[in-house]
Structure prediction request, 150 residues.
Amino acid sequence: MALKLSQCFIAVDDHDKALAFYRDALGMEVRNDVAFEGMRWVTVGSPEQPDVEIVLEPPLADPGASPADRQAVAELLAKGMLRGVIFSTDDVDATFERIRAAGAEVLQEPVDQPYGVRDCAFRDPAGNMLRFNQPRTPGTAGTPRTPRNG
Prediction:
């Protein structure tokens, strides 16, 4: 039995701001943007992974959710308390500079982690944490790299 990830979901409170960030700052493709029964189905994905999509959805898309539940989830999103995603990149320093230049909120500049990656972190416009990591080459544990210029 073969299993592959097809879609993952990220809560957003403004589809247009989210699209601008994921498309323009991250370079994702917009794969779908469809209005349906008062909802909006928006998917984006990396050109490197044509079979994986990120669905940008309202904080609580369940039509059966109570107003109190919707409010609670919206408040958690506003605080940045909902989980985000981790992307891999072949150059975390260049990725960091590109996303920072686009105006994203920086949570962590690139740093070598003890678990074998160099990573950085940002918040998307809705407050979700997004991490970007690159495996460190063997023999570089504990050796900090300096960010590239330009």
Summary: Residues 67-78 form the longest helix (12 residues). Residues 93 and 146 are 8 Å apart (CA to CA). Confidence is low (pLDDT under 50) at residues 142-150.
